[in-house]
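Translate structure to sequence.
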């Protein structure tokens, strides 16, 4: 590809706007040629603020534009499969936010199409690019804690998303815990083979309408015999709390901290510090790093580091956890060959 990659962002919600702003201002080697959103005014506002040449409500027109070389898909998950297929047909490189789809069959189909077309498709599991998670993975690979035995993750959102979002989210295990399922595979370098999930509505009663929960726990088993547990909560009123731990035969490694800044206040009432308010603040650097890697790999002609197979397997684990919760039993994973 050219020295600078002509890129377009599809979808300008909160995360889409951030991705587009990062491409416009913080990522080298890219020309943000176009932005598209079903709300035309939103696309126009972004284009005016960041001097983007093309803006439209017609997402298909952007995918088909001959000068667009790569697309970043940040639209609702229900639209991902169709947009990925259109982008493959138009021979565009693809970055797509997680989850790749809400359906296991669709996820499998997308993976097959990507492989058959030899297309570039990178899935947006940004925690892999967070410096602390990345460093932890490197140290685990190096053997600093011996053989990994147990994985533990805590993911707590400060509040529940609104009902309009929950309606099409795919439920907590697929929408939220999928990040932890992916980072479990990444840190443990192993496949999840069984899940046992439980959960409840402890605060947000409207979730019952959608058979969803705001507090969940998933016990996981890995192929090599290791185990783990993953908490997902939408009730942490104190802030955004994301942590992980891997226990090994020779030590333990912990990732994550509550403090947004290295700043503490001490007075007669005690000691206090600020807390990350949300995911954008906590993973600000990771969102930039994953797009930097996306563009750099396109320039070099390298393969995707977070593949549609990774996306497919994360969806498989999440849906198995959902099934486990619904049926109140352990569910074994059967990764059908793609």
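Result:
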């Amino acid at each position: 590809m050219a020295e600078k990659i002509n890129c377009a962002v599809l979808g300008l919600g909160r995360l889409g706007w951030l991705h587009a702003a990062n491409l416009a201002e913080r990522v080298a080697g890219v020309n943000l040629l176009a932005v598209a959103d079903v709300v035309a005014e939103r696309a126009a506002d972004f284009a005016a603020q960041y001097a983007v040449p093309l803006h439209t409500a017609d997402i298909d027109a952007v995918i088909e534009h001959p000068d667009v070389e790569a697309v970043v898909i940040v639209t609702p998950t229900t639209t991902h499969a169709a947009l990925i297929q259109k982008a493959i047909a138009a021979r565009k490189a693809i970055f797509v936010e997680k989850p790749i789809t809400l359906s296991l069959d669709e996820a499998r189909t997308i993976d097959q199409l990507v492989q058959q077309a030899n297309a570039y498709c990178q899935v947006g599991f940004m925690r892999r690019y967070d410096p602390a998670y990345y460093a932890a993975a490197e140290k685990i690979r190096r053997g600093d804690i011996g053989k990994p035995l147990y994985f533990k993750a805590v993911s707590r959102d400060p509040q529940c998303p609104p009902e309009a979002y929950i309606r099409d989210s795919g439920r907590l295990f697929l929408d939220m815990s999928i990040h932890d399922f992916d980072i479990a595979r990444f840190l443990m370098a192993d496949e999840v083979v069984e899940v046992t999930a439980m959960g409840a509505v402890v605060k947000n009663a409207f979730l019952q309408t959608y058979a969803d929960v705001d507090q969940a726990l998933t016990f996981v088993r890995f192929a090599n015999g290791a185990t783990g547990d993953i908490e997902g909560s939408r009730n942490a009123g104190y802030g955004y709390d994301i942590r992980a731990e891997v226990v090994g035969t020779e030590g333990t490694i912990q990732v994550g901290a509550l403090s947004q800044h290295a700043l503490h206040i001490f007075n007669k009432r005690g000691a206090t510090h600020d807390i990350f308010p949300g995911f954008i603040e906590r993973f600000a650097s990771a969102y930039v790093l994953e797009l930097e890697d996306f563009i750099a790999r396109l320039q070099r002609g390298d393969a995707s580091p977070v593949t549609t197979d990774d996306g497919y397997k994360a969806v498989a684990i999440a849906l198995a956890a959902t099934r486990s919760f619904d049926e109140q039993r352990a569910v074994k994973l059967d990764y059908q060959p793609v």
